[in-house]
Write a structure and sequence with these properties.
The protein is α/β, with parallel strands linked by helices. It has 18 helices and 27 strands. It starts with 7 loop residues before the first strand and ends in an 8-residue tail after the last strand. The relative contact order is 0.06.
Length: 578
């Protein structure tokens, strides 16, 4: 199959979204496009169907339209030109009852149709003569096999359909069990081998993914490691297209050289825990040899490096069923509430993650991007336990997204995760790839909703004294007020904690006038959002709760009263009058 770009699934009505979600279960990287105003819960909304479809087609994106085939044909007809370059295009009935490949015969459209049809439990409407008469697709072998000379395949298939016989050299059940006219004396040849061979027109060569390269770390810098592995393959006359994956002990999962080799060869890296290698290691094999044996159930070739081994399995290797991937932990910020404030990076992480960890309210903000994920909900105050759970999940090879609202590094879960890493330092956490994806903070959203109160120097102070003493909070409020910062108050009031805001007001009034502008922003980006302006002398605990962000103006902060009754608040960039 030659589809290397994640497909786009295009729907025109809400009824099609359910079918689209079924398709995504077998195409997890697919992006769901929906017509604005008629669909919800999609990844991308569009208003112009024709323009969107033609742009995706021009980019080489495989297209799955859940609509009538005629609509797709008429829409794409003006841009059809090069059969060799066009991506796969399929039409799927709105109720999922039919899957029709339309374009992209040279891009694996029939194979894509079969995968979709299997997910929908229907039979694909494949009309390609070669597929029907030969019982297999020689141009697009199944996963685990690579066709080395596709340019020779068209004439080769034509000769077969004209009556030629073919001899099969090597083992490939998908070929031997097909309708191919196999004859040991055939004029044509199909060769299945992991070794380098000379290509010729009357012979199709398939390289099975049977080679496992095992690395135990310490084989040099990334570029050196790539050059070493490539040289070892060349010396053994092994074809790089037959490499199924890079395998290593989990203790080496953070080694950049391993991932550089995997990237250079275009294969996944998989890792074994000490328990999974216990038998091989106890038998005296090196960690690299142990990993090679665990991946192939065969003995490795003679090693030329104590940290590297190569083994060949009797059948293609499916790396997804061996060991585990390197665990990934993304700590993300969804913004204050609405999906329009969620970054593209965060949305991509949510699409790819296997597990979501967080406070239930924040997980609910993710909406349809949480579909199909394992949700791990916990109370908002159980941050340490939540961080430990996320790290343990990631250490087992999962892709975990820890979900915070706002920005994860501002009074949120990013700090909690790193605190736990620092405090407990479990060895298995060292293998995790940890990444922080920023989000729009509540103070930014509050400022944007009312104008530009953060236009000059500002600071943020949490009024919660759960994790720090009130004496420290008092000192910071006084210092910020004396320094004339605009101040953003987080966590101002809770059911059990109300007096702190009143005390903060007393401190502020020592340095601010009673008419200092104060912005109260509640439920930002969510139903019931309110943003209003009061003065400092009107600020009381009753005016706020834990869903409120409070912005206290500096002595220079100004208000603009508009004719429509609305108010803008801003802090001048120039701190002195001109």
């Amino acid at each position: 199959m030659m589809i290397n770009v994640a497909p786009a699934i295009v729907v025109l009505g809400q009824n099609s979204v359910t079918v689209a979600r079924k398709i995504i279960t077998v195409l997890p990287g697919a992006t769901l496009y929906g017509l604005a105003g008629r669909t919800s819960g999609v990844d991308v909304s569009f208003t112009n169907f024709g323009k969107t479809l033609r742009e995706l087609f021009a980019q080489g994106t495989p297209l799955i339209g859940i609509c009538a085939a005629g609509i797709l044909i008429r829409t794409l007809a003006p841009v059809l030109s090069d059969k060799q370059q066009e991506p796969a295009v399929l039409a799927v009935a709105e109720d999922g009852s039919a899957v029709v490949p339309l374009l992209g015969g040279l891009a694996g459209v029939n194979d894509l149709a079969r995968r979709i049809a299997e997910a929908l439990d229907v039979k694909p409407a494949i009309t390609t003569t070669g597929d029907l008469r030969l019982g297999t697709t020689l141009l697009f072998p199944p996963p685990g096999y690579h066709l080395a000379n596709p340019d020779d395949a068209k004439k080769f298939i034509s000769d077969l359909l004209a009556g030629a016989q073919v001899k099969l050299e090597g083992i490939a059940p998908w070929l031997s069990d097909s309708k191919l006219p196999i004859d040991p004396k055939g004029d044509l040849t199909i060769q299945v081998t992991e070794h380098l061979v000379t290509l010729r027109a009357n012979c199709l060569v398939y390289h099975p993914a049977t080679i496992a390269i095992a690395i135990s770390g310490m084989i040099g810098y990334a570029d050196d490691a790539v050059a070493l592995v490539q040289q070892l393959l060349a010396d053994a006359r092994l074809e790089r297209a037959s490499v199924a994956g890079i395998f290593a002990p989990i203790t080496a999962a953070a080694d950049p050289a391993i991932h550089a080799v995997a990237s250079a060869l275009g294969v996944p890296a998989r890792f074994f825990t000490p328990n999974q290698l216990e038998v091989q290691l106890s038998a005296g094999y090196s960690p690299a040899q142990a990993a090679a044996i665990a991946a192939t159930d065969t003995f490795p070739l003679s090693p030329s490096s104590p940290h590297l081994a190569i083994a060949i399995a009797p059948q293609p290797i499916d790396p997804n069923t061996i060991g585990q991937p390197r665990g990934r932990l993304a700590i993300i910020g969804t913004g204050p509430g609405g999906s329009q404030w969620m970054s593209k990076e965060v949305k991509e992480i949510l699409k790819s993650a296997t597990d979501l960890v967080g406070y239930k309210t924040y997980l609910d903000l993710v909406g349809s991007l949480a579909d199909g994920k394992q949700r791990h909900e916990s109370d908002n105050r159980e941050e340490e336990a939540r961080a430990k759970m996320a790290l343990d999940l990631a250490a087992s090879g999962r892709y975990v997204a820890v979900v915070s609202s706002g920005d994860p590094g501002i009074y949120a879960m990013a700090t909690a995760v790193f605190e736990v890493c620092d405090r407990y330092a479990k060895p298995e956490w060292d293998s995790i790839d940890i990444h922080v994806a920023p989000g729009i903070s509540a103070m930014q959203a509050a400022a944007a909703a009312i104008g530009a109160p953060l236009g000059h120097d500002f600071c943020a102070i949490s009024l919660s004294d759960i994790l720090k003493p009130w004496s420290a909070i008092e000192q910071r409020i006084a210092a910020a007020a004396k320094a004339d910062f605009v101040i953003a108050f987080y966590n101002p009031v809770s059911k059990e904690r109300t007096w702190q805001l009143a005390e903060a007001r007393k401190i502020l009034l020592l340095h601010r006038t009673p008419d200092t502008p104060v912005v109260l922003a509640q439920n930002l980006g969510r139903p019931g959002q309110t943003v209003k302006v009061i003065t400092l002398d009107q600020l009381t605990p009753a005016t706020a709760d834990m869903r409120t962000i409070i912005l206290i103006g500096s002595t220079k902060t100004r208000t603009i009263k508009r004719r429509d009754g609305n108010i803008w608040v801003y802090t001048p960039r120039r701190y002195t009058e001109q």
